[in-house]
Amino acid sequence: MKAAFYDRQGNAKDVLQVGALADPAPGPGEVRVFVRVSSVNPTDLKARAGYGGAPMAFPRIIPHQDGAGIIDAVGEGVSETRVGERVWIYEAQAGRPSGTAAQYTVVPAERAVPLPDNVSFEIGACLGIPALTAHRCLFADGDIRGKRVLVQGGAGAVGTAAILLAKWAGAWVATTISRPEQADVARNAGADLIINRRTDDIPTVVMMATGGGGVDRIVEVDLAANIQTDLSCIATNGVISSYAAADAKEAVALPALRAMLKAVLVRFVFVYSVPGDAKKTAVEALTACLQAGAYNPAIAARYPLDQIAAAHEAQESGKLIGKVLVTAE
Question: Is the domain of 201 the same as that of 268?
Answer without folding.
Answer: yes
